[in-house]
């Protein structure tokens, strides 16, 4: 369920779009900012709010990698492994991240600190290889730079 404040934000968007369904991406983003992820309960709630079936909401959440359909760690580390990053060594970056965090791709560390994901091109190919932690991008990485970056995360 959205907080009253976030519900107001979604309702304000209804005035700017031709249909309630068109508010879907924004509503889901607001829900994720509130909870850190989007539970089945939240998807059903958003479906009711936007007057669309749960299956439609589920389809959107599972299609876009920017939405988390599972609880994630304090730090969500998204490593780009698409062509530019792959050609410039993203495999070693991913190995470094997995080793440092003690988890494999798609997993969350037992202490809830790290979730490691693989993502497609994040539009930062000029700085390949790169990863994102939350909304911050880290580019031109080497295994050493990656290790230093991860060591700074408390
Ligand atoms: S391929 Fe990695 S940011 Fe484009």
Number of strands: 4
CATH topology of the largest domain: Glutaredoxin
Spatial strand order of the main sheet:
2-1-3-4
Compounds present?
FE2/S2 (inorganic) cluster
The end-to-end span amounts to 30 Å
Look at the structure and give the CATH class of the largest domain.
Alpha Beta
**Unreliable runs:** none
Quickly give the CATH architecture of the largest domain. 3-Layer(aba) Sandwich
Provide the gyration radius in Å.
17 Å
Helix percentage range? 40-55%
Estimate the mean pLDDT confidence. Answer: 96
Whole-number count of domains? 2
Tell me about the biggest sheet?
A: 4 strands, mixed
Beta-strand level of the residues, as a percent range? 5-15%
Shape: elongated
Q: How many individual helices?
A: 7
Class by SSE composition: alpha+beta
Offer a quick outline of the entry.
The protein is α+β, with helices and mostly antiparallel strands. It contains 7 helices and 4 strands, in the order H-H-H-H-E-H-H-E-E-E-H. The chain has helices at 4-14, 24-35, 40-50, 54-63, 83-87, 90-101, 143-151, and strands at 75-80, 114-119, 131-133, 136-138.
Structural write-up:
The chain is of the alpha+beta class and 154 residues long. It has helices spanning 4-14, 24-35, 40-50, 54-63, 83-87, 90-101, 143-151, and strands at 75-80, 114-119, 131-133, 136-138. It has a four-stranded mixed beta sheet, covered by helices on one side. α1 (4-14) runs antiparallel to α2, α3 (40-50) packs across α4 (54-63) and α6 runs parallel beside α7. The mean pLDDT is 96. FE2/S2 (inorganic) cluster binds next to α5.
């Amino acid at each position: 369920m959205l907080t009253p404040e976030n519900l107001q934000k979604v309702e304000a968007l209804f005035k700017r779009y031709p249909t309630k369904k068109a508010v879907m991406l924004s509503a889901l983003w607001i829900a994720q900012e509130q909870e850190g992820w989007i539970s089945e309960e939240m998807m059903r709630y958003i479906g009711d709010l936007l007057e669309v079936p749960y299956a439609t909401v589920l389809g959107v959440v599972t299609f876009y990698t920017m939405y988390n359909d599972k609880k994630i760690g304090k730090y969500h580390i998204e490593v780009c492994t698409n062509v530019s990053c792959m050609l410039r060594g993203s495999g070693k970056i991913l190995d470094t991240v997995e080793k440092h965090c003690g988890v494999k791709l798609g997993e969350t560390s037992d202490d809830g600190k790290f979730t490691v994901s693989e993502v497609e091109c994040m539009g930062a190919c000029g700085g390949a290889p790169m990863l994102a932690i939350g909304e911050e991008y880290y580019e031109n990485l080497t295994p050493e730079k990656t290790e230093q970056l991860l060591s700074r995360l408390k």
